[in-house]
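Quick entry between incubations.
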Amino acid sequence: MQSFEINKSDLLKIKNALDANDTELQRVLGEYHASEIAILFERLSPEEREKIINVLPSDIASEVISEMDEENHPGQILFNLHPEKRSEIIEELDYDDATDIISQLEEHEQQQVLDHIDQEDATNIRALLTYDEDTAGGLMNTDVIKLNANLSKKDALEEVIRQSEEMEEFYTIYAVNDRDILQGIVSLKDIFKAKPDVMIHDLLKTDYVFVKAEIDQEEVARLMSQYNLTSIPVVNDHLKLLGRITIDDIIDVMEEENTEDILKISGVSEDEELSGSWQDAVKSRLPWLIINLGTAFLAASVIRHFAGLEAKLPIIAAYMTIIAGMGGNAATQALAVTVRRISLSDLSDAQAYNTVLKEFLVGMINGAVNGIIVLIVALWYDANPMLGLVLFLAMTGNLIVAGLTGASIPLLLKRLGIDPAVASSIIITTFTDCIGFLLPLWLASALLL
Amino acid sequence: MQSFEINKSDLLKIKNALDANDTELQRVLGEYHASEIAILFERLSPEEREKIINVLPSDIASEVISEMDEENHPGQILFNLHPEKRSEIIEELDYDDATDIISQLEEHEQQQVLDHIDQEDATNIRALLTYDEDTAGGLMNTDVIKLNANLSKKDALEEVIRQSEEMEEFYTIYAVNDRDILQGIVSLKDIFKAKPDVMIHDLLKTDYVFVKAEIDQEEVARLMSQYNLTSIPVVNDHLKLLGRITIDDIIDVMEEENTEDILKISGVSEDEELSGSWQDAVKSRLPWLIINLGTAFLAASVIRHFAGLEAKLPIIAAYMTIIAGMGGNAATQALAVTVRRISLSDLSDAQAYNTVLKEFLVGMINGAVNGIIVLIVALWYDANPMLGLVLFLAMTGNLIVAGLTGASIPLLLKRLGIDPAVASSIIITTFTDCIGFLLPLWLASALLL
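Done. Structure below.
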């Protein structure tokens, strides 16, 4: 099986069915998985999406809405539905998904939606709406299988069947005491295999990992990945069980965080939607470019300072841009490796020191090799051995600076509690530009004139 | 709870226990989770690691070994163990993990290890060793809960208990026919809740997703993420069930792929180990830098061509570097957004066209804003309105080129079947360097002289 890609024939089939009657549309939609319909939605108009949601059975419709990209405004579709259809769909949604979608609406729209659904659902969703969406509380689902630790095997199994009636899938059963304080976790398999007279508290696994509701989602992702967990319980300060986070929600978080890393390191605001409008893109990128323009003037002022030299040795301008550019590229390499390493695990002081030392060495060697090539070119084209020496030294020096700054600046930022990825290549290349201009100009002034 | 970070006191405690006797070492190790010991291993010598594996109970030792970073050579530790301890540990490992670790050894070492373990385990591991490690076959675990579709509820439950005896956790039960051909999936919950006279084939879910063994792991990750799966069955060409891949293995794949993306876009070979040696880093990065040196000479030849102009207008060199540098940064921004977007989903022709159009617009607007700033600076510092106009036009033009190349080159590569991330900023900035030098020099020649 291959992952689903939209092709013209699928789209045409849906478009034709949209123009035909509802029965035909239902028949065609039946050929697709809910997540495939969600992907097809990217190419349909808001009106077409609404029409499709209206003819789909509520359970499929709810799956489609929960799989929809936030940019396609699933909240708005939900809001525009007939209140009865809307309630049916929300009832089918997991609480965490329902909360995510409803949170996209304006406050008065949220009220209107919540007023029309089942009282208990509304209470649960209202509670989840209070958590910041980037925290464990914002990610969690309040639907859990929760047993009192004092239940017998038989009562426990009955309770599991009762509670799982409305749940699609569950991974772990949580045991609590009378005040809902988490006592441990137990698997259905273990209850099932236990002897008849066993109580739940005899089966508990107590060395489990849990998180508090206000923990950042990135930390939750790191924990679940580190301990290979498929779900993790969420508790309040008194260890009362509030809900659980499942691995499928964490995969979305990981993709989000990885997107942010790659954008920040390239000087793009982390909030830029990948498929957002050009207005958003300008807003997200222009500030970085203007900061960089300021630093570029700084680097250019180095060149102004040596304006006399250039008049005498115009060829230096061409070489200087090569050395500055190579420094920028080497710095980007060192930066990418270091930022990625930091985001996968924390580095000790000794590891940080070794990283900087390694990048110093790499910069020196790569600088020397490229320096020799430039030296040979200078001999060949310009027949000037002294110019060759100047360029060799400048290239080596600038690539050492590139390695040192590319590694040490993100490490330093991390220690200062600042996101290391903001040490974007835009910032780092300021150093390599300045040094890349300064070294050849200064060395040439000293050695060639 | 916070994710585990190594601190000095933990390390000191372990080191002291290593110097004391085995009982003390066992007591201290008992305070840590297996995955925490695997993290602590990063700071211990190979001898210390072996000593710890030797005193740990086999089930914990196998967990530690399966969590160890590949760079710390878990295979070598396993190989150095006493054959009896080694067999115990391998028996505790999942087949997929055992295969990964054993595959790190030389062929004759692999034989030696496999000759000393249980016959059935050895056969399973030998079969897994034949798959490429980057494919579904290389990722899968052959330990699955597999039921004949013709079993009754009662027999099925007994069979599940029997088969799950040795399994840590399972998510899905696979139903097969007499020739092991996959018929569908069923959940324990559904078997459990079924009426007594129900047969497995009545409970089957048949619209499940599966993969063939030779599919690339990246494709598996995309499927599991797209369809929100916690596990996926792996089959051969005849749909015979070979094994299953679980979501925890996919998380590692996703992190690997994301690391590769961020490295490639920054001009680092995808194979560079983040914490590898300086020799590896030189090998991985030097080729890219040398390619870039070639393209830098190309850009510099533009400057050489206008050497006469520079002698008359030395100030142009400083401005030219600013315009080229800004182009490089804007191109990096457009590139990062486009590459990340492609790696998360495939773009249709219409979406690709819109992306290029958007980046054109963004480049034009960001170029014009930065162009106006440079124009003002040129008026202020150099009192030269015509120079200001030249710079404004050159900046706008170069940022348009930056947007166009940053978006269109990765899209083009993708359509040619080449990994779009190799359109690294190193390649893209060649364009912006050339145009960034050419535009101001050519416009200045035409308008100022």
